[in-house]
């Protein structure tokens, strides 16, 4: 391990700890909410994971020398939206999964009805969390309103939910790479792009910078999802926390299915490079962490 | 029918038509969304109903001589949130209802998975709709941000979803009127209060006026829900579009169960009067429509 990697690892550990602490404060114990609902929300929200989206919010703010403190509520918001989508995806009517990250899924612990409501509540509460950037940290109302509006668009029918619906509707008959790319873009990349834009907006990014963040996001978002498809074929079950080849068993069509494993790996490298080049060509005072995150996502084994 | 009633009826018809037209524009045909998802969202959103919450948004704006045009996006937003809650409530894991307003429920037509996603998408899209008050109608960003934040709070775990969870968790063992009141307040009144506050904010209400709208909302909200409980015992099945005594059959505890039918009817009248008095005591230039709506809700037979 060289020094640079060590530095990045310490950075990641510190940022992740910040996010975990902020998330833990988001559903306070004294909250006037039915206790079982709060427990169901907290169970999935605090179940670990890479916290990738919050890290991207913070790194995008840092790229523009913005306040990471002010970006933290929005980092929590996007993680709540991501968590709700996992809870609903795991439901019997959807993917019907019993385990996620080695833990029982929400509905296996709290029952289906409460799992549906916990997801609804996390999604709704995300908008309240985002508003804190204005209320507590004094980010201008216009910027925070834009972030909340973006969240609605990138997480909604035109974004993540649309991707999820297309995935579900196409489960039997997906025959074109474009269709798979539509699903990947909306199911995965849209929230990644949102995270980068939100961090940028917190730091007062201009239009050109927002466009660069968007292009960077779509490039690394697709790379991330192709890498997911690859790991599903080649990965270590222990590290992934789920059986490999599960997509194949479920007859899910993936990137390697269309273009092969080697070409998929090349595509991940290309997309990551493309994304980094876009970022470097734009005027960011401190893009280092974003660039490192892009490499980290490409190299990850789970 | 006297003239005043005729006038109110024409007013209601005109306002409802405005809301229906705005809702119909919210999910445009050319929208880049999987068509079946859009259809599932539209099916429930355009399934009729009283449109009470949107009417309250518009009437609250009118009470302060605010722009009803500017209030319309928020009126649509609250109806989308109300609709999503009905779709999720009707799911097999929740109330397991096959019919609503005489039509098949969403999951009976589109399947459970798409019904869950259509609900998620409507909830998410509501925040985008609300943001239009700023983008298109120029309501100050601070006010619109407050409205979006309110929506997250009143519709979330502390609000509607919390009430729904309490209702579900208490289905077997509800023994105290306070518990029922908690459920009624959050499941029903919170969205009514939100609607009134949002209309007020659009029109630039001051703190005192917002407080009056809140008190008015909690009074007529509870009256509305008690009236629902009463109609469930005494109502005309045809008008209600559902079998009466259904709550009793499902062993749901209602207001008449605790204090009897007559006392429940008296309570509806008292609460309505209380709400109207609060409103009259505050400084509203044109409170007439809100007062008429309160009476209308008390007198309704479905």
TrEMBL record, chains A, B:
Cofactor(s) required for function per UniProt: Mg(2+)
Root EC class: transferase
Alphabetical list of Pfam families matching this protein: polyprenyl_synt
Organism of derivation: Paenibacillus eucommiae
Keywords linked to the UniProt accession: Isoprene biosynthesis, Magnesium, Metal-binding, Transferase
EC number(s) recorded for this UniProt protein: 2.5.1.1, 2.5.1.10, 2.5.1.29
Protein name in the entry: Geranylgeranyl diphosphate synthase type II
Entry's Gene Ontology molecular function annotations: (2E,6E)-farnesyl diphosphate synthase activity; dimethylallyltranstransferase activity; geranylgeranyl diphosphate synthase activity
Keyword tRNA-binding appears in the UniProt entry: no
PROSITE patterns noted in UniProt: POLYPRENYL_SYNTHASE_1 (PS00723), POLYPRENYL_SYNTHASE_2 (PS00444)
Origin organism lineage: Bacteria, Bacillati, Bacillota, Bacilli, Bacillales
Coiled coil: none
Source organism superkingdom: Bacteria
Homology family: Belongs to the FPP/GGPP synthase family.
């Amino acid at each position: 391990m060289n020094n640079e990697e060590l530095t990045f690892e310490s950075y990641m550990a510190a940022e992740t700890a910040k996010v975990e602490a902020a998330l833990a404060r988001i559903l306070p114990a004294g909250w006037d909410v039915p206790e079982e609902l709060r427990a169901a929300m907290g169970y999935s929200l605090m179940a670990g994971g890479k916290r990738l989206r919050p890290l991207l919010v913070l790194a995008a703010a840092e790229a523009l020398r913005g306040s990471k403190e002010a970006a933290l509520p929005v980092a929590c918001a996007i993680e709540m939206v991501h968590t709700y989508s996992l809870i609903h995806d795991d439901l019997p009517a959807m993917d019907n999964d019993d385990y996620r990250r080695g833990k029982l899924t929400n509905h296996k612990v709290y029952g289906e009805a409460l799992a549906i409501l916990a997801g609804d509540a996390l999604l709704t509460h995300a908008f309240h969390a985002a508003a804190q950037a204005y209320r507590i940290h004094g980010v201008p109302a216009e910027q925070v309103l834009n972030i909340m509006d973006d969240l609605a668009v990138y997480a909604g029918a035109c974004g993540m939910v649309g991707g999820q619906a297309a995935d579900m509707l196409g489960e039997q008959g997906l025959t074109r790479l474009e269709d798979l790319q539509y699903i990947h873009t909306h199911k995965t990349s849209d929230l990644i792009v949102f995270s980068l834009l939100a961090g940028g907006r917190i730091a007062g990014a201009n239009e050109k910078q927002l466009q660069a963040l968007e292009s960077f996001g779509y490039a690394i978002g697709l790379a991330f999802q192709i890498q997911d498809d690859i790991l599903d074929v080649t990965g270590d079950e222990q590290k992934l926390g789920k059986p490999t080849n599960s997509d194949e068993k479920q007859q899910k069509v993936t990137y390697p299915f269309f273009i092969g494993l080697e070409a998929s790996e090349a595509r991940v490298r290309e997309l990551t490079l493309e994304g980094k080049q876009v970022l470097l060509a734009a005027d960011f005072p401190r893009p280092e962490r974003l660039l490192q995150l892009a490499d980290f996502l490409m190299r990850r084994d789970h």
